[in-house]
Fold this sequence. Notes:
Blueprint: E1 2-4, H1 7-14, E2 21-26, H2 32-44, E3 47-52, H3 72-81, E4 86-88, H4 92-95, H5 114-117, H6 121-136, E5 140-144, H7 148-160, E6 166-170, H8 190-211, H9 217-228, E7 232-239, E8 255-262, E9 265-272
Parallel strand pairs: 1-4, 2-3, 2-5, 3-4, 5-6
Antiparallel strand pairs: 7-8, 8-9
Helix pairs in contact: 6-7, 8-9
Amino acid sequence: MIIARNVSELHKALETRNANVGFVPTMGALHIGHRTLIDAARRENDTVVVSIFVNPTQFLPGEDLSKYPRREEADFKICELSGVDVLFYPDVAGMYGEDEVRICAPDVRGYILEGVSRPGHFDGVLTVVMKLLNQVRPTRAYFGKKDAQQLALITQMVNNFFMHIEIVSMETVRESDGLALSSRNVYLSAIERQEALKISASLKQATKQVMQGNLSSESIRQEMLTILLPLDVEYVAIVNRAFELIPEVILGDTIILVAARVGTTRLIDNVWM
């Protein structure tokens, strides 16, 4: 595995590689969910690139940028064992300059749900993903469905800017008890982790309701809110793939999303139907 710490080293590492490149952008603190993305990239491409970059522009004032888990040695080992060809590990100075052109999230889909509580967050996400995609120039890039709104906006950006990159979405990976894997799970105490299971439990109940024929968004939402008590719920939303609120679940075109705080840790999860 080659480790590249700037764009010149990245391009040198890739110049003799096959053109078919799979790319997994991450912020490190890698877990099994990331490994699933890497494994898919390994199966479907000749060359696999993983980036690790904790992007400061997507963190709002007061958020956990300085506390975000960083595990460089463990991350390197995971990438090596996963068959990654090139690990791209840039720094902030190499990624950002002064008075830059910026990518902005769309006015509607960028400022609902996650965008309400984190205004400007998706501007930072889209900017760094655009930079990374242009640096790596992959055939395919892999993202998890857990960050559903992020996935939708990245896909829209690639389409809007006519970028010849296939965005591959992968299912959310969970612990055996149902908790969605997240780098932020390390912040949870043992008691908080048990409380966090209410999030996946609410989504299981939503799925059960739909399977039993209840398609009413408000009815399902109220059932979920009851299960989520006493968590600090930011939103429970039922939307179509275009992220428009819908009065009834449409099978094949619905995402049910939850954002809640467990203690001081903010967690998100969803189910696609």
